[in-house]
Amino acid sequence: MPHALARLAILATSLALAACSEPEPEPESEAVPVVAQAVRVLPEQLEVEAIGTARAATSAEIYPETAGRVTSVLFSAGDYVREGEPLLRLDARQERLAVEAAEVSVREADQLLGRYRRIEDTGALSESQIEAGETSLASARVALEQAQTALADRVVRAPFSGHVGLTEIDPGDRVNDTTPITQIDQRGTLYVDFPAPESVFNALRPGQVVQVSPFSDPSRTIDARVVTTDNRISQDSRDFIVRTAVPNTGDRLRPGMSFRVVFTRAGEARPVVPEQAIVWGGEGSHLFVVRDGKAVRIPVTITARREGQVFVDGAIRSQDRVIVEGVQKVRDGQDIRLVRGGSQGTQTVQVRPTPTASPSADEE
User: Fold this and answer.
1) Where are the domains positioned within the chain?
2) Alpha-helix residue ranges (DSSP H) falling in the chain
């Protein structure tokens, strides 16, 4: 009998220990309050940069028409000259004498033909003699025009109005038609030519405006209007030349200057989220979206930034809501509670699904 009682006591103790060792149900994790907003899909704005070079709207390198000795240089570097204004004179003594001789020949031929005309009706001259007199006068006039042209070529004149550059010619130098005199530029408007990648060929059209900044004054931004584009793509560099027009207000710019050119174009449509929604970790960037009351971690790649917003590439659905506040407290798969207004308000707009298990007495 005592042995039976002892066995019953041991059994009761074992049952009590077994009951105490059964795990109690773990309390459910508390839903984390967060603020989320709908995903927007916008075309990505791609920024393209290039280096452009300015040239005058009209420019010419000036050469003399003929060879000779320079008698005077009539300009200085930087001068503004009018069209037709003389820039340089060559020795023209022989050419002036040639003009005088041609003028004498014209007077003689004209006088001879006049005498022929006066006695034409008398029959003393044949028709062929009169025709010869007319031909002689015409030839003399042509010779005079040639002499006058040769004399005019002894003066080098501005082909159009503009600013002239440096010259290495001095009085006494001998020049010919291959000797450069100076450069003249009409720089009220400058052309800025720059190479653009083939991918933006359809994005640049005449009339479009791009931003240019001279390297001599990086803080200055100028609106440049596209004038034209080259008609072919370079097979070596896979780009094409774009020509833009820049107003040279105040004559502060010069041909040959370098410019930084910036323009944007619409790219592929991508999801756009606030920058604070991005979380950085050891595996890169990710964000959290709300699906079925839980936070879902989505790895993303940032493709562009714009005014506090980022364009991302990732497995984001158009109906997703992205967590923008409270994201640092969220883990993948965690229950969440959406609130409106973040730190400024706590009005609940969505709660996690109600558990299927019955609430405990304490929860009631």
Assistant:
1) 32-43+269-350, 49-56+187-267, 64-90+156-180, 92-153
2) 2-21, 93-118, 127-152
Radius of gyration over every alpha carbon of the chain, rounded to an integer in angstroms: 46
Q: What angle do CA 289, 293, 295 make, to 5 degrees?
A: 35
Answer whether residue 19 shows pLDDT above 70.
Answer: no
Express each pLDDT in 219-259 by its tens digit. Answer: 999 999 999 998 889 888 888 999 999 999 889 999 999 99
pLDDT of residue 245: 95
pLDDT for 126 equals: 76
Homologous superfamily of domain range 92-153:
Helix hairpin bin (1.10.287.470)
Angle at 38 between CA 36 and CA 40, to 5 degrees: 135
pTM of this structure: 0.59
Give the DSSP H/E element, type plus range, for residue 272.
strand 258-274
- Tell me the average pLDDT across 175-186: 95
Q: Which fold has domain 32-43+269-350?
A: 2.40.420
Q: What phi and psi, each to the nearest 5 degrees, are found at residue 170?
A: -125, 155
State the Cα–Cα distance between residues 297 and 20, nearest whole angstrom: 39
Same fold, 49-56+187-267 and 64-90+156-180: no
pLDDT classification of 13: cutoffs 50, 70, 90: low
Higher pLDDT, 149 or 117: 149
- Secondary-structure class of domain 64-90+156-180 per CATH: mainly beta
Fold of 49-56+187-267: Elongation Factor Tu (Ef-tu); domain 3 (2.40.30)
CA atoms within 13 A of residue 99's CA, in its CB half-sphere: 12
